[in-house]
Amino acid sequence: MKQPKLSDLVIDRKGTQRMRAEAAKTRKVKITINIDQDSLEALRELAGESGASYQKLLNQVLREGLKKRDSAEARLDRIERELEQLKRKRVA
Q: Which domain holds residue 38?
């Protein structure tokens, strides 16, 4: 395959700006993590079945897990408030 000449390359500044703007909207951050091999294999298998990339699937799994955590904490806070109200009623 013939190598392109640097003088033939054209910089698409508007296209680059558009790509950067789109990337900024997604608010995605590139990170490096350590993950168990079996977890990664299971994630990749699920991704293969669904047709999504394993990275998108991992993001979805993390998001759902955090949502459940937030939901559980909110429920616990509500139960604690109700318990305090019951204690006050009992004392009164």
A: 34-92
